[in-house]
Amino acid sequence: MSDIGSASGEALRLVAGALTDASGLVLEHEPVPADQVVAGSPSTGYVALDGWGAGEIGVWEMTPGAMRDVEVDEVFVVLSGAATVEFEHPHSSPIVLAPGSVVRLEAGMKTIWTVRETLRKVFIAR
Q1: 60 near 44, Cβ under 8 Å?
Q2: What is the Cα–Cα distance from 86 to 14, expressed in whole angstroms?
Q3: In Å, how far are 8, 23, 65, 95 from 61, measured between CA atoms?
């Protein structure tokens, strides 16, 4: 069940005091653009839950495979799945994601996401 409200011309908003089941939301997937694919045939799905100014809360999902990405300022919590994120720039040790992982990314970070089991996360980005 999801209680997300939006009126024509207004920002998308979660309904105060209502429940949104981020794990159960149906996400429409699109193939990852060929220039971002590192391995396999991954696809991603996304839904915005709430937005304000330059900020957004949403749910994002990626199927198994690997892709390159350039990040935005974001904090996310993994709901399900298994993946590794490698940091190409600035270089840093890879991190292994599992349900419950909480991660902060900074705008401009260059990453490679290798998903072993479909990964779903809730994020807050700006």
Answers
A1: yes
A2: 32
A3: 27, 10, 12, 17
Q: Which of 11, 85, 20, 84 is nearest to 53 (CA)?
A: 11
pTM of the predicted structure, to 2 decimals: 0.88
Distance CA 5, CA 106 (A): 29
Q: Which two tokens stand for residue 97?
A: 């994601």
Q: Which residues, in sequence order, are CB contacts of 58 under 8 Å at separation 6+? A: 46, 47, 48, 49, 50, 122, 123, 125
Quote the CA–CA distance of 81 and 64 in Å, as a whole number.
9
Instruction: Tell whether the model's pLDDT for residue 6 goes beyond 70.
Output: no
pLDDT surpassing 60 at residue 11: no
Per residue in 107-123, pLDDT tens? 999 999 999 999 999 99
In sequence order, what E strands does the chain have?
Answer: 4-5, 13-14, 29-31, 37-39, 43-52, 55-62, 65-70, 74-89, 91-97, 102-105, 110-125
Report the distance separating Cα 75 and Cα 93, nearest Å: 18
